[in-house]
Amino acid sequence: MQRTAHTNDIPAKERDWNDVRRLLPAAWHRGRTQRPSGAVRIASAATPLSEHFKLTSQEAMVDLKGKVALVTGATSGIGQVTAEYLAEHGATVILGVRNTDAGKKLAQEIMAKYPGSKAECGPPLDLMKQDSVKAFAEAINKRPGSLDILVNNAGLGYTKKSFTEQGVGMLTQVNHLGPYTLTRLLEKKLVASKARVVNVVSVTHRITTIRDAKALFTDWKGGFYQHNKLANVYTAFELQRRLGARGLQAVAADPGAVRTNIYNNSPKLGRGFIKTMIDNCYAPPEDGAQAVIYAATCDWAADQRKRKDGSPLQPAEDLRYYARGVFTWPQLCNDWALGGKGIKKVKGDIWGASTVVLSFLDWPLRRLLGNGLMGRTKLCRPGSHAYDADMSAQVWEASAEFAGVPVQPQV
Ligand SMILES: NC(=O)c1ccc[n+]([C@@H]2O[C@H](COP(=O)([O-])OP(=O)(O)OC[C@H]3O[C@@H](n4cnc5c(N)ncnc54)[C@H](OP(=O)(O)O)[C@@H]3O)[C@@H](O)[C@H]2O)c1
């Protein structure tokens, strides 16, 4: 909805909300770089993205000079900010996007903004089509040099009920099977490069379980967004279990609640009161991308956890989930904190509702209280079911079957 100069032209609902906003402290408005309801744009052309990261000044990042990073879904939102940040800090960034005109334009914009930076648009990558994923992976495999960072970011929040020719629900195809296939087809190059793989996940994985791995693909309701995001966590963990000892580093990163285009298509979230809440209470992409950027660039060894007896975790046990803000709070995030098995008695929808309410509090709290410790990306626990190694392996195996790749990594 475009804002105009004449108050009378502004719909009553938005006018009311503007009145409320004027009463809020200045801190609320700081850092708002995106217009409500507007398409997401990265920070102003004159401002380096690193300016937006000063508040939390993240811990030591690995040197990105000479590294090659592939970011999928880089045409908007979190992926766009991530790609720009990695290029700003010296990585050669490949944009894995379906709209290559937008990708080429973005690559040019990034290189113009950061003289000496390197960004290129890869061949078209449409995660709705396995053929496109395979052709894209082939081109990346043929590209000389390493592939040091893969950010599986592209995703859809909602789509009308539809299935691929293979009978896979379209949401699962885009959010899980496409990225899984891409990662598996690149695994040899990734292992050879001792790469970092970041799966962009969501707090919604906490409000659901996957009971039947095949249903994730073929049953429409079994393949909703939250199931896909749980499958993304499983895939990150399974990659780490299977290839961690070979030097691959795989993590899940939750960007939090971020106002991006992802909500625009949803009939429930893309309009009305909820949309107004999202536009005003969710973080801008420059903020939300921090967790993803941190997961992609942090010093792996420095973040290594230890066992209770002080001995280091083996790579296959080093299952990492990064998040920030309220999404790291034990009361929200660790179901064991609410009484272990007791949590099973709480109905999923109550749990889900509380997650939604907290998602509206995260950014406002960080704006009002200061980003400080709450703004830091931290290692935390995902929902405890994400550690279910049996289900994780079942999802991996079913994914391999649908992707047409061997279950065992070919490295
Ligand atoms: N926003 C949040 O609150 C939030 C919270 C937790 C997790 N996440 C995750 O963050 C990731 C990025 O989402 P976002 O919020 O930044 O949303 P976004 O602005 O809508 O970005 C999504 C990106 O994915 C791309 N994409 C969609 N369908 C695709 C397809 N079939 N093939 C290739 N690329 C496709 C889009 O490309 P087009 O421009 O061509 O459509 C776009 O570049 C997603 O994985 C999402 O699940 C978001």
From TrEMBL:
<dbReference type="InterPro" id="IPR036291">
    <property type="entry name" value="NAD(P)-bd_dom_sf"/>
</dbReference>
<dbReference type="InterPro" id="IPR002347">
    <property type="entry name" value="SDR_fam"/>
</dbReference>
<dbReference type="Pfam" id="PF00106">
    <property type="entry name" value="adh_short"/>
</dbReference>
<protein>
    <recommendedName>
        <fullName>Protochlorophyllide reductase</fullName>
    </recommendedName>
</protein>
<comment type="similarity">
    <text>Belongs to the short-chain dehydrogenases/reductases (SDR) family.</text>
</comment>
<keyword id="KW-0560">Oxidoreductase</keyword>
